[in-house]
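Notes from the 1:1 (GR / supervisor)

We went over the backlog. Supervisor wanted to see one worked example end to end before approving the batch request, so GR pasted a single chain during the call. The sequence is below; no edits were made to it. Supervisor asked that the structure be written out right there so they could see what the output format looks like.
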Amino acid sequence: MIRYLALIPLVFLLAAPVEAQSRREMAARLDAAEARIAQMEARSMAGDPVLMRMDALEQEMRNLRGTIEEMEYENRRLRQELESLQRAVENSARNPARNSGAANAGAGGMPGGSNGRAGGPADLTGGYAVTNPDDPYADERAAATRPLGGASNLAPATGGNMPAGDADTLYGDAESRLLDGDFFGAQEGFQTFLASHPEDARADEAQFWLGETHFINGDYAEAADAYIASLRADGRGSKAPDALVRLASSLSNLDRTNDACTTLGRFSSQFPNAGADARARANREAQRIGCR
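Structure output shown during the call:
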Protein backbone atom coordinates (compact mmCIF):
# COMPACT_ATOMS: atom_id res chain seq x y z
CA MET A 1 0.00 0.00 0.00
CA ILE A 2 2.81 2.37 0.95
CA ARG A 3 4.42 1.51 -2.42
CA TYR A 4 1.35 2.67 -4.40
CA LEU A 5 1.10 5.89 -2.42
CA ALA A 6 4.68 6.64 -3.31
CA LEU A 7 3.83 6.41 -7.03
CA ILE A 8 1.13 9.14 -6.93
CA PRO A 9 3.57 12.12 -6.95
CA LEU A 10 5.37 10.49 -9.87
CA VAL A 11 2.13 10.37 -11.91
CA PHE A 12 1.53 14.09 -11.39
CA LEU A 13 5.11 14.87 -12.34
CA LEU A 14 4.71 12.96 -15.61
CA ALA A 15 1.29 14.53 -16.43
CA ALA A 16 2.55 18.10 -16.17
CA PRO A 17 4.75 17.97 -19.32
CA VAL A 18 1.93 16.29 -21.30
CA GLU A 19 -0.54 19.03 -20.37
CA ALA A 20 1.98 21.72 -21.22
CA GLN A 21 2.60 20.12 -24.61
CA SER A 22 -1.15 19.95 -25.33
CA ARG A 23 -1.55 23.63 -24.54
CA ARG A 24 1.34 24.52 -26.81
CA GLU A 25 -0.21 22.53 -29.67
CA MET A 26 -3.58 24.24 -29.15
CA ALA A 27 -1.92 27.65 -29.13
CA ALA A 28 -0.02 26.78 -32.29
CA ARG A 29 -3.22 25.70 -34.03
CA LEU A 30 -4.96 28.92 -33.01
CA ASP A 31 -2.04 30.94 -34.30
CA ALA A 32 -2.14 29.06 -37.60
CA ALA A 33 -5.88 29.66 -37.96
CA GLU A 34 -5.46 33.35 -37.27
CA ALA A 35 -2.66 33.49 -39.82
CA ARG A 36 -4.86 31.86 -42.47
CA ILE A 37 -7.70 34.27 -41.76
CA ALA A 38 -5.32 37.21 -42.00
CA GLN A 39 -3.96 35.84 -45.27
CA MET A 40 -7.44 35.50 -46.78
CA GLU A 41 -8.31 39.04 -45.72
CA ALA A 42 -5.10 40.31 -47.28
CA ARG A 43 -5.82 38.45 -50.53
CA SER A 44 -9.34 39.84 -50.62
CA MET A 45 -8.12 43.39 -50.15
CA ALA A 46 -5.35 42.90 -52.72
CA GLY A 47 -7.80 41.59 -55.36
CA ASP A 48 -7.39 37.85 -55.29
CA PRO A 49 -8.14 36.40 -58.77
CA VAL A 50 -10.37 33.66 -57.37
CA LEU A 51 -12.43 36.09 -55.32
CA MET A 52 -12.58 38.53 -58.22
CA ARG A 53 -13.83 35.72 -60.45
CA MET A 54 -16.51 34.87 -57.90
CA ASP A 55 -17.59 38.52 -57.81
CA ALA A 56 -17.71 38.58 -61.61
CA LEU A 57 -19.85 35.44 -61.68
CA GLU A 58 -22.25 36.93 -59.16
CA GLN A 59 -22.54 40.08 -61.28
CA GLU A 60 -23.11 37.99 -64.39
CA MET A 61 -25.87 36.07 -62.63
CA ARG A 62 -27.53 39.34 -61.67
CA ASN A 63 -27.29 40.52 -65.28
CA LEU A 64 -28.76 37.27 -66.56
CA ARG A 65 -31.59 37.54 -64.07
CA GLY A 66 -32.32 41.03 -65.37
CA THR A 67 -32.25 39.79 -68.97
CA ILE A 68 -34.66 36.98 -68.14
CA GLU A 69 -37.04 39.44 -66.52
CA GLU A 70 -36.88 41.66 -69.62
CA MET A 71 -37.60 38.67 -71.88
CA GLU A 72 -40.54 37.64 -69.72
CA TYR A 73 -41.92 41.17 -69.97
CA GLU A 74 -41.46 41.18 -73.75
CA ASN A 75 -43.18 37.79 -74.03
CA ARG A 76 -46.13 39.09 -72.02
CA ARG A 77 -46.36 42.15 -74.25
CA LEU A 78 -46.23 40.08 -77.45
CA ARG A 79 -48.85 37.71 -76.04
CA GLN A 80 -51.14 40.66 -75.34
CA GLU A 81 -50.64 41.98 -78.87
CA LEU A 82 -51.43 38.57 -80.36
CA GLU A 83 -54.55 38.29 -78.24
CA SER A 84 -55.61 41.77 -79.33
CA LEU A 85 -55.03 40.84 -82.96
CA GLN A 86 -57.01 37.63 -82.53
CA ARG A 87 -59.91 39.52 -80.96
CA ALA A 88 -59.88 42.01 -83.82
CA VAL A 89 -59.99 39.22 -86.40
CA GLU A 90 -62.79 37.46 -84.50
CA ASN A 91 -64.77 40.71 -84.29
CA SER A 92 -64.32 41.23 -88.01
CA ALA A 93 -65.50 37.68 -88.69
CA ARG A 94 -68.61 38.28 -86.58
CA ASN A 95 -69.42 41.46 -88.52
CA PRO A 96 -69.87 40.33 -92.13
CA ALA A 97 -71.83 43.44 -93.09
CA ARG A 98 -68.85 45.65 -92.40
CA ASN A 99 -66.52 43.24 -94.17
CA SER A 100 -68.64 43.28 -97.30
CA GLY A 101 -68.74 47.06 -97.17
CA ALA A 102 -64.95 47.20 -97.15
CA ALA A 103 -64.75 44.75 -100.03
CA ASN A 104 -67.28 46.75 -102.06
CA ALA A 105 -65.28 49.89 -101.40
CA GLY A 106 -62.26 48.31 -103.06
CA ALA A 107 -64.19 46.92 -106.02
CA GLY A 108 -66.70 49.69 -106.67
CA GLY A 109 -64.81 51.49 -109.42
CA MET A 110 -63.53 48.48 -111.30
CA PRO A 111 -64.41 47.72 -114.89
CA GLY A 112 -66.07 44.57 -116.02
CA GLY A 113 -69.25 44.29 -113.95
CA SER A 114 -70.43 45.02 -110.44
CA ASN A 115 -67.89 42.79 -108.77
CA GLY A 116 -64.96 44.01 -110.83
CA ARG A 117 -64.03 40.58 -112.24
CA ALA A 118 -63.73 40.54 -116.02
CA GLY A 119 -61.77 37.33 -116.44
CA GLY A 120 -58.14 38.35 -117.00
CA PRO A 121 -55.18 39.73 -115.10
CA ALA A 122 -55.63 43.22 -116.51
CA ASP A 123 -59.28 43.26 -115.40
CA LEU A 124 -58.43 41.94 -111.96
CA THR A 125 -56.14 44.90 -111.33
CA GLY A 126 -58.21 47.69 -112.83
CA GLY A 127 -55.99 47.96 -115.90
CA TYR A 128 -52.73 48.35 -113.97
CA ALA A 129 -51.46 44.87 -114.76
CA VAL A 130 -50.90 45.45 -118.47
CA THR A 131 -47.64 43.77 -119.41
CA ASN A 132 -44.85 46.29 -119.78
CA PRO A 133 -41.34 45.15 -120.78
CA ASP A 134 -39.90 47.96 -118.68
CA ASP A 135 -41.85 46.98 -115.57
CA PRO A 136 -39.47 45.08 -113.21
CA TYR A 137 -42.49 43.62 -111.41
CA ALA A 138 -44.39 42.40 -114.47
CA ASP A 139 -43.87 38.71 -113.66
CA GLU A 140 -44.90 39.10 -110.03
CA ARG A 141 -47.95 41.13 -111.01
CA ALA A 142 -49.03 38.49 -113.50
CA ALA A 143 -48.46 35.74 -110.93
CA ALA A 144 -50.36 37.57 -108.25
CA THR A 145 -53.36 38.34 -110.44
CA ARG A 146 -54.04 34.97 -112.01
CA PRO A 147 -57.48 33.43 -111.46
CA LEU A 148 -56.76 33.18 -107.71
CA GLY A 149 -56.79 36.99 -107.53
CA GLY A 150 -59.55 39.25 -106.32
CA ALA A 151 -60.60 42.86 -106.61
CA SER A 152 -58.08 45.61 -107.26
CA ASN A 153 -56.50 47.65 -104.53
CA LEU A 154 -55.94 50.47 -106.99
CA ALA A 155 -59.54 51.00 -107.93
CA PRO A 156 -61.31 54.02 -106.47
CA ALA A 157 -63.28 53.37 -103.31
CA THR A 158 -66.86 54.41 -103.99
CA GLY A 159 -68.55 52.76 -101.02
CA GLY A 160 -68.07 52.55 -97.29
CA ASN A 161 -68.22 54.96 -94.42
CA MET A 162 -64.95 56.88 -94.84
CA PRO A 163 -65.58 60.63 -94.87
CA ALA A 164 -64.12 62.83 -97.56
CA GLY A 165 -61.34 65.09 -96.38
CA ASP A 166 -57.83 66.34 -96.88
CA ALA A 167 -54.93 63.93 -97.29
CA ASP A 168 -53.67 64.25 -93.72
CA THR A 169 -57.10 63.53 -92.24
CA LEU A 170 -57.74 60.51 -94.45
CA TYR A 171 -54.31 59.02 -93.93
CA GLY A 172 -54.38 59.65 -90.19
CA ASP A 173 -57.81 58.07 -89.82
CA ALA A 174 -56.77 54.97 -91.78
CA GLU A 175 -53.57 54.67 -89.78
CA SER A 176 -55.47 54.97 -86.49
CA ARG A 177 -57.85 52.20 -87.52
CA LEU A 178 -54.90 50.01 -88.42
CA LEU A 179 -53.29 50.57 -85.02
CA ASP A 180 -56.62 49.81 -83.32
CA GLY A 181 -56.80 46.44 -85.08
CA ASP A 182 -59.71 47.51 -87.31
CA PHE A 183 -58.18 46.03 -90.43
CA PHE A 184 -61.26 46.28 -92.62
CA GLY A 185 -61.76 49.90 -91.61
CA ALA A 186 -58.07 50.60 -92.28
CA GLN A 187 -58.35 48.88 -95.64
CA GLU A 188 -61.27 51.09 -96.59
CA GLY A 189 -59.45 54.16 -95.30
CA PHE A 190 -56.27 53.59 -97.30
CA GLN A 191 -58.31 52.85 -100.42
CA THR A 192 -60.16 56.14 -99.99
CA PHE A 193 -56.90 57.99 -99.40
CA LEU A 194 -55.31 56.53 -102.54
CA ALA A 195 -58.37 57.23 -104.67
CA SER A 196 -58.54 60.85 -103.46
CA HIS A 197 -54.81 61.60 -103.40
CA PRO A 198 -53.01 59.21 -105.75
CA GLU A 199 -50.03 61.55 -106.13
CA ASP A 200 -49.47 62.09 -102.40
CA ALA A 201 -45.92 61.48 -101.18
CA ARG A 202 -47.27 58.81 -98.82
CA ALA A 203 -48.87 56.77 -101.59
CA ASP A 204 -46.18 54.08 -101.36
CA GLU A 205 -46.71 53.72 -97.60
CA ALA A 206 -50.48 53.69 -98.01
CA GLN A 207 -50.20 50.91 -100.59
CA PHE A 208 -47.92 48.96 -98.26
CA TRP A 209 -50.34 49.21 -95.32
CA LEU A 210 -53.21 48.38 -97.65
CA GLY A 211 -51.31 45.25 -98.59
CA GLU A 212 -50.86 44.42 -94.91
CA THR A 213 -54.62 44.57 -94.29
CA HIS A 214 -55.20 42.16 -97.17
CA PHE A 215 -52.38 39.88 -96.03
CA ILE A 216 -53.75 39.66 -92.48
CA ASN A 217 -57.16 38.71 -93.86
CA GLY A 218 -55.66 36.03 -96.10
CA ASP A 219 -56.33 37.92 -99.35
CA TYR A 220 -52.89 37.21 -100.75
CA ALA A 221 -53.58 38.13 -104.39
CA GLU A 222 -54.86 41.55 -103.37
CA ALA A 223 -51.96 41.91 -100.95
CA ALA A 224 -49.43 41.11 -103.69
CA ASP A 225 -50.97 43.69 -105.99
CA ALA A 226 -50.79 46.34 -103.24
CA TYR A 227 -47.14 45.58 -102.49
CA ILE A 228 -46.31 45.87 -106.18
CA ALA A 229 -48.15 49.19 -106.31
CA SER A 230 -46.12 50.35 -103.30
CA LEU A 231 -42.86 49.45 -105.04
CA ARG A 232 -43.93 51.18 -108.23
CA ALA A 233 -44.95 54.29 -106.31
CA ASP A 234 -41.49 54.59 -104.73
CA GLY A 235 -39.00 51.81 -105.34
CA ARG A 236 -36.55 53.44 -102.94
CA GLY A 237 -39.01 54.40 -100.21
CA SER A 238 -38.73 53.43 -96.57
CA LYS A 239 -41.25 50.60 -97.05
CA ALA A 240 -39.81 49.29 -100.31
CA PRO A 241 -37.59 46.54 -98.81
CA ASP A 242 -40.43 45.27 -96.62
CA ALA A 243 -42.85 45.49 -99.54
CA LEU A 244 -40.59 43.25 -101.63
CA VAL A 245 -40.35 40.67 -98.85
CA ARG A 246 -44.11 40.73 -98.23
CA LEU A 247 -44.71 40.41 -101.97
CA ALA A 248 -42.67 37.21 -101.89
CA SER A 249 -44.67 35.99 -98.88
CA SER A 250 -47.93 36.65 -100.72
CA LEU A 251 -46.74 34.82 -103.83
CA SER A 252 -45.64 31.90 -101.68
CA ASN A 253 -49.08 31.72 -100.09
CA LEU A 254 -50.54 31.69 -103.61
CA ASP A 255 -48.40 28.59 -104.33
CA ARG A 256 -46.14 30.68 -106.60
CA THR A 257 -42.94 29.47 -104.92
CA ASN A 258 -40.69 30.04 -107.93
CA ASP A 259 -41.98 33.58 -108.37
CA ALA A 260 -41.51 34.21 -104.65
CA CYS A 261 -37.91 33.01 -104.72
CA THR A 262 -37.19 35.04 -107.85
CA THR A 263 -38.55 38.10 -106.09
CA LEU A 264 -36.39 37.53 -103.01
CA GLY A 265 -33.40 36.91 -105.26
CA ARG A 266 -33.62 40.55 -106.35
CA PHE A 267 -33.46 41.89 -102.82
CA SER A 268 -29.70 42.33 -102.49
CA SER A 269 -29.25 43.98 -105.88
CA GLN A 270 -32.32 46.17 -105.55
CA PHE A 271 -31.63 47.25 -101.96
CA PRO A 272 -27.85 47.08 -101.47
CA ASN A 273 -28.06 49.57 -98.61
CA ALA A 274 -30.98 47.95 -96.81
CA GLY A 275 -30.77 47.82 -93.04
CA ALA A 276 -29.81 44.74 -91.08
CA ASP A 277 -33.41 44.10 -89.98
CA ALA A 278 -34.72 44.20 -93.55
CA ARG A 279 -31.98 41.84 -94.75
CA ALA A 280 -32.71 39.48 -91.88
CA ARG A 281 -36.42 39.43 -92.76
CA ALA A 282 -35.58 38.66 -96.38
CA ASN A 283 -33.27 35.81 -95.36
CA ARG A 284 -35.84 34.35 -92.95
CA GLU A 285 -38.53 34.45 -95.62
CA ALA A 286 -36.24 32.77 -98.15
CA GLN A 287 -35.56 29.99 -95.63
CA ARG A 288 -39.24 29.64 -94.79
CA ILE A 289 -40.21 29.35 -98.43
CA GLY A 290 -37.33 26.98 -99.15
CA CYS A 291 -35.48 29.07 -101.72
CA ARG A 292 -32.06 27.83 -102.76
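Supervisor's comment: Confidence is low (pLDDT under 50) at residues 96-133, 143-163.
Batch request approved.
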